[in-house]
Design goal:
two-stranded antiparallel ribbon, 3 domains, elongated, 4 strands, two-stranded antiparallel sheet, mainly alpha
Length: about 170
């Protein structure tokens, strides 16, 4: 059997047309393989972003479920964080061992500790657990704010709102 391609206007054998699996056995694409290839290539160059984004998403989705890739990506991300703080894995290990795996603020042991640094000069201060490091970040590393927080924690917690009836 033969079929006419509406793009190149040639009559070609059915073998020159790709099968359309979604329509079932015996159905073929409207355009011949050569025209379809040109159309796909042309549409890519006219608007490459959606295809590129789809390829990236698909690549990402495939790789994020691959345990070997996850381990590799995690290691690379860790190395990048260490480099950003001017540390190597060996220096991090030395810091970790010097602190006995304990947070410098709460003294809790953790399997991994975050690198705390001064945001003004990027100097590493030590290793903190996630909670303490996040807490310092929320207080914006501000000593006056931290002093007020300490005063607040030391207070009896009673707030006198005039006429609210809370003083009973």
């Amino acid at each position: 059997m033969e079929k006419r391609c509406p793009r190149c206007k040639e009559v070609k054998p059915l073998g020159e047309f790709s099968p359309r699996r979604e329509r079932g056995e015996g159905h073929v694409n409207t355009y011949c393989k050569a025209c379809r290839c040109e159309m796909v290539r042309d549409s890519y160059w006219l608007n490459p972003a959606p295809k590129r984004d789809y390829a990236r998403r698909r690549h990402h989705n495939v790789l994020k479920h691959d345990p070997a890739h996850r381990a590799y990506a995690s290691k690379k991300a860790r190395e990048a964080k260490l480099r950003a703080r001017g540390l190597t894995d060996e220096l991090y290990r030395k810091l970790y061992d010097a602190q006995d795996g304990r947070c410098r603020l709460c003294d809790e042991w953790r399997k991994t500790l975050n690198i705390d640094h001064n945001h003004e000069n990027n100097v590493t201060r030590g290793l903190l657990c996630l909670s303490c490091n996040t807490g310092l970040g929320h207080f914006r590393d501000s000593i006056p704010v931290l002093r007020r927080a300490i005063e607040y924690l030391n207070s009896d917690g009673y707030i006198n709102i005039c006429g609210s009836g809370l003083d009973a």
